[in-house]
Amino acid sequence: xxxxxxxxxxxxxxxxxxxxxxxxxxxxxxxxxxxxxxxxxxxxxxxxxxxxxxxxxxxxxxxxxxxxxxxxxxxxxxxxxxxxxxxxxxxxxxxxxxxxxxxxxxxxxxxxxxxxxxxxxxxxxxxxxxxxxxxxxxxxxxxxxxxxxxxxxxxxxxxxxxxxxxxxxxxxxxxxxxxxxxxxxxxx
Length: 188
Known about the structure:
- It is built from one helix and 16 strands.
- The chain has one helix spanning 115-119; strands at 2-8, 11-18, 24-31, 37-45, 51-60, 63-71, 77-78, 81-85, 93-94, 103-106, 128-136, 142-154, 157-162, 165-171, 177-180, 184-186.
- It has a 16-stranded mixed β-sheet that branches.
- The chain is mainly β.
- The chain has one domain.
- This is Glycolipid-binding domain-containing protein.
């Protein structure tokens, strides 16, 4: 079991991570954009680092939302939601068909950048890998189909790309992000 804290420009995140059978994690984050919010999540993957479930709850002044995102053995995603109060923006839940996605990507969380990197061994070599992600917009909890690319750069460094955005991420020996320029940095 490991625990990490990441600082962010407009918030922070704490996660407890266990690598006993794949990746299992619980975490809490706070943020300020587009409104002040709190996120609590629980993530579980298979031993091969494919997402099994991501349970998320977000809340802010006068509203809350929850999402129970799950991927079954056949690759089918479900995402029931609950919520109350007003939050401007898209409604929670699956907005797109998620066929072909193996991973979830919790918006603004460096933790979920670990699964594809670990599954494809990108910390130690390899080329560019194209992926479809089930991207979870925070704090709204809308889930969309999101193409992403990961490319091995050198030992412990991987380039992340999506929709005109790119960042060179640094990972520790366990495959956890320690530096995500423009998003988060692990506190040591």
